[in-house]
Each structure stands twice: as C-alpha cells, then as structure tokens.
C-alpha cells in the first residue's frame, strides 16, 4: 500500500491538500497535535512577556549623608546616592538586583530590547534552519536552547551575562514559534488552516493570563525565572510525539516518510487513504502540475526578483513591524492605562480571547485580507481616541487601550495565517523568518515607544494608533488567500498572483462589455 502511494506521489506530484480532505482536514489525530502545539505556544508567551514581571520598578531610598529621597535620586543620578535601599521583602526584580534606577533606568528597558534583538536574529537564522533540517528538529533544538539560557539568566550574578542570556532566549524563542506555527499549518487541511491558526494564537493569550497569575504568586524574579525554565522541560518530549511536516518532506524528495506520516494521521482519524484519492491523483491534470523546487534551489532573494512579489513582501514586512510594536507596546503599557501590573496584564491577555473568537468568524465571512485590515484600522482608531478623550473622560482610557489590544491581537493572529498562506513551501519558514525579523524590530522599539508617555501623557498610544492605521490601509494591496491552494514554489506563487490578476481583469472587461451592451440597447430604444 505504501509503495503504491509512493509511486503515485512521485509520478503525479501529489496534491497534499486533496489528501487531507480525504483523510481528515482536522481529525482526532490532528487535534491531538493541535493541543500539543497550543500548550507550547502558551509556554512561548511566558518568555515573550516575562520582561514585565522581572523588571518592574521597586520602591527604594537614596541615601546621601543625612539626606534621603524616596524613589528618586539627587540630580537624577544613581551615583549621587552613597547607598540605595530597596524594599525586597515581598518582591524583587532586576531593577533591585542591579540598582537600575534614575539615570540607569534605561538598562532595564534594554533587557527587553536585547531579548527582541535575539528574536530578530533567531527569526532570520533559525527560519532558514527549519527549511533545511525540518520543522520538528528545529522545534526540539529551540526548546533545549530556551530552557538552558533562561536557566542561566536566573542564576547569574552578572548583569552583562543576564543580558546575553536573554538575547539567546529570544534567539531560540523566535525559531521555536516559527517552526511551531508553520508545522501546525502544514499538518491540517486547507479549509481548517484559519481556525487552527487562530486557536494556536489564542493559546498565546491564555499564556499571558496564566503567566500573570503565576507571577502574582511568585514575585521574586529569580524564583519566577527558574520556575518558567522547569515548566519548559516536558516540551522536549514533543520530538517523539509530533511528526514532521509531510509537505516539507515532499519538498525534500522524501516521499516514503511523508506517506508514513499521512498513514498515521489517517489511522488516528479513523480513516484510510481510499481508492478515490488514488483515482484523483491518477488524473491527467496532475501530470501538468509544477513540482516544488528542490531544496536549496530557491531562497529569499527570489521574492524580490519579481516586482509584484517584492511589493507584496515589503508590505508584509511593514505590517509585521507595526503589529509587533503595537501589540507588545500595548501589553507593556497596560499598567499605565490603569489597573496595576498583574491585573492589567492579565486583562490584556484575557481580552484577546474574544478577539480570536471574532476573528475565526470573520476569516470565513470576510477572508484574510479584509479581516486583517479591519482589525488594524480599528485598533489604530482606538489608540488615537485615547489622546482625544484622556483629558475629558479619563475613565475611558483603559477601555480604549483594551479595545486597541483586542484589535491588534486579532490582527497579529491573522497576519500569521495570511503570510503563511502567501509564501511557498520551499521557503515558507525562511520567509516567515524574514517578516518576523521586522516584527522583532517593532518589539525592540516597543518599550522605548512606551517611554514617550513620560514626556507627554498618552503619546505612546498616538504613535501606536498612527502606525496601525497606516499598516491597515496598505494591507488592502495584499492578495486574498482564503480557500486557495498553498503554493509549493516561488513559481507557483507568481502564477497564483497572475491568475488572480487575470481574473480581476476579465471581470472588469465583462463589466465594460455589459455596460456597453446596456448603452447600445438604450440607444436602440
């Protein structure tokens, strides 16, 4: 049976989407894989938002001779204090650990930027790695790296080593999230990619809520960091639980392994690869299909050799930058909009859950592109409203901030799904890594944009609003991917874009012809 199916794969270039339709697009076995990946994405949130709970300001007293100041320094200089006393009985952070106060306050913000710089580099480097060694191996390698370096950050007594460790955690975190999302996307059928992707993103929001709850109980930063490291150990076992992507295996000319995985999924779903599938694969149209480019023959530079692909890629780069900057910025700014650190951060995560429910409905109703634009524009307008109403209706600020977070969380979920469906299999992980690099630049900038609120009240929300509004408008130029076959090569990607363009042109021509026909009829009348 395996040999017969293997020969069909090689001879007729299997349409894997058709196979998933037959064996189950999101059956019991794929739901098990989905739950596992959701738990891992929930854990990823612990690292992406850990900064907020280990770098909070701690009450201190600056002592100089007979003089003392509470939560301030003479001339705003830490060195002006002969001694610094921190209140660390109930809680501690890296601020109290290394006296990052007054003119040294920027260093605590710098740890978030170091983390995001690691995420940026990791997205680029490890994105390519997953296209070379596979999604599953990349996922396992990155989990080991995350646990090791996060543990190092918890036990080090050197601030410089702490920053290096956080950079490395970010580096491996990026590769883990990318490999996880792409693998999940390639294990389900075409009509279920939307709901699967949204559910996977929703687990990140659950992670924010859980982290807020855990951090509220474990308020000493070293204990919290070590606890998070220990919680990551079980995910190493995923190497023996979750399979490699059959779509990636086929792109690497490894059909036997792809067939075995598809057989296992079918068995877990209670289905079989039927004769109907074989007859469909044996149809003449399959012989005309382009094969996926061999591994290594296509790269990111191919996205810029075609003008339309270049514009499309640049738009996505900007969109990811804005989504990340606004999403993490609004999360970090949650405390400033009212409610306190733990409660406000938990609410900022909880508010994302209904956003994902709404997103799932809109993805089927409006498609990917319109849903993405709607949420980004809506989030932008919510943030801009804060600046307008803060003086007269201050109670509305928190609601507007949460509405903006809801909208941008939803748009971040959609942009993952949309980009994953636009880019081809041969470079999907690398291309997702490229746009993720832009997202991490946004993440690096986020804490510094939040600092703008110190110079002018709510200025950070205005910046996030303008960025989101502009990105939402230019995203209208991206193609719709709902219900479309995933491209397996850059050539297929170009053909798909030209096909859509051709359909649009034919539609315009038909409208013009109908208009001319109506005019001629009215003239005859």
Would you mind describing this structure in some detail?
The chain has a three-stranded antiparallel beta sheet with strand order 2-1-3, with no helix packed on it. The protein is 70% helix and 2% strand. The chain starts with a helix and ends with a helix. It is built from 21 helices and three strands.
Helix content: 55-70%
* Overall spatial form: globular
Percentage of residues in DSSP E strands: under 5%
The count of β-strands is 3
- Give the overall pLDDT as a whole number: 83
List keywords for this structure.
mainly alpha; globular; 70% helix
Brief sketch in words of this structure:
The chain has 525 residues and is mainly α. The chain is built from 21 helices and 3 strands.
Describe the secondary-structure layout.
Elements: H1 2-12, H2 16-23, H3 28-48, H4 50-54, E1 60-64, E2 67-70, E3 83-86, H5 94-98, H6 105-133, H7 135-155, H8 159-185, H9 193-217, H10 221-232, H11 246-251, H12 255-269, H13 275-281, H14 307-332, H15 341-350, H16 352-365, H17 368-389, H18 396-422, H19 428-450, H20 459-474, H21 490-524
Antiparallel strand pairs: 1-2, 1-3
């Amino acid at each position: 049976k395996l040999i017969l199916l293997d020969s069909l794969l090689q001879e007729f270039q299997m349409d894997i989407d058709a196979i998933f339709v037959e064996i189950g697009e999101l059956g019991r076995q794929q739901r098990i894989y989905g739950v596992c990946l959701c738990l891992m994405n929930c854990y990823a949130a612990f690292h992406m938002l850990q900064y907020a709970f280990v770098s909070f300001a701690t009450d201190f007293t600056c002592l100089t001779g007979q003089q003392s100041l509470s939560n301030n320094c003479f001339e705003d200089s830490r060195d002006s204090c002969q001694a610094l006393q921190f209140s660390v009985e109930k809680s501690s952070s890296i601020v109290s650990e290394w006296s990052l106060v007054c003119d040294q306050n920027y260093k605590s913000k710098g740890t978030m930027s170091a983390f995001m710089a690691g995420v940026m580099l990791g997205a680029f480097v490890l994105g390519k790695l997953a296209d070379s060694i596979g999604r599953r191996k990349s996922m396992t390698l990155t989990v080991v790296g995350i646990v090791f370096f996060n543990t190092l950050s918890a036990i080090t007594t050197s601030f410089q080593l702490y920053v290096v460790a956080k950079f490395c955690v970010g580096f491996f975190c990026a590769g883990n999230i990318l490999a996880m999302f792409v693998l999940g996307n390639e294990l389900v059928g075409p009509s279920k990619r939307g709901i699967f992707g949204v559910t996977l993103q929703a687990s990140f929001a659950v992670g924010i809520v859980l982290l807020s709850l855990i951090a509220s109980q474990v308020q000493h930063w070293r204990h919290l960091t070590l606890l998070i490291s220990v919680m990551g150990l079980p995910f190493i076992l995923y190497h023996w639980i979750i399979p490699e992507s059959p779509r990636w295996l086929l792109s690497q000319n490894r059909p036997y392994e792809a067939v075995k995985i598809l057989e296992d999924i079918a068995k877990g779903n209670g289905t079989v690869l039927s004769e109907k599938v074989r007859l469909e694969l044996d149809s003449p149209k399959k012989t005309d299909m382009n094969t996926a480019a061999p591994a290594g023959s296509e790269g990111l530079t191919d996205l810029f050799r075609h003008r339309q692909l270049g514009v499309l890629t640049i738009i996505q780069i900007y969109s990811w930058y804005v989504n990340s900057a606004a999403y993490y910025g609004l999360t970090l700014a949650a405390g400033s909009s009212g409610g306190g650190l733990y409660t406000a951060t938990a609410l900022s995560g909880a508010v994302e859950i209904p956003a994902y429910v709404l997103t799932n409905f809109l993805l089927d109703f409006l498609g990917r592109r319109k849903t993405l634009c709607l949420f980004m524009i809506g989030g932008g307008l919510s943030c801009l409203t804060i600046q307008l109403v803060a003086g007269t209706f201050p109670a509305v600020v928190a609601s507007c901030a949460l509405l903006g977070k809801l909208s941008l969380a939803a748009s971040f979920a959609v942009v993952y799904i949309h980009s994953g469906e636009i880019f081809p299999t041969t470079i999907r992980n690398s291309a997702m890594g490229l746009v993720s690099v832009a997202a991490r630049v946004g993440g690096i900038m986020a804490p510094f944009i939040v600092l703008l609120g110190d110079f002018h009240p709510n200025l950070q929300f205005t910046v996030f609003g303008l960025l989101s509004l502009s990105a939402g408008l230019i995203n209208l130029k991206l193609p719709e991917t709902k219900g479309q076959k995933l491209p397996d090569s850059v050539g297929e990607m170009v053909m798909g874009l030209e096909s859509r363009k051709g359909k649009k042109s034919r539609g315009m021509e038909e409208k013009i012809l109908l208009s001319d026909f109506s005019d001629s009829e009215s003239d005859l009348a």
